[in-house]
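seq as requested:
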Amino acid sequence: MKKTVLFLLALLALTGLKAQVAAQPGDILEVKESVFDFGKIPQGKPVFHFFDVVNHGTKPLRLDNVQASCGCTTPEWSKDEIPAGGTSRIRVGYNAASSGGFEKYITVTYNGNDTKQIKIKGEVWQAPAGAAPANASIQFLKQQIQ
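struct tokens:
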């Protein structure tokens, strides 16, 4: 019985310690979602998604840079300061020029040297080449009318 009580107390203490570690006061910028999956998108049709960011600090905060891992991904963000407790949005676009699966990383730099990373992913499917396949029934009807 004593071992069980001691084990439960130790587990409770570790859980409390973990909660304290997760709530670091130095973590000023929160990205509401760090990964967005576009799912299946058609080739050649650009897509975009908005990532919401929150300033949990006590002072205004500015996003210094938002940089994508390649040229097919284009981030856009406001150069205005985010007030303490305020939110902003980062618009991330993907051009969908190449078919197949993709994972692209975007690095958000703030407060001079602090960074967060967000990711977009999905799969680009290639449309069949040329026009739609011929329909034999339509061809037959056209011949009957002439």
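Residues 73 and 94 are 5 Å apart (CA to CA).
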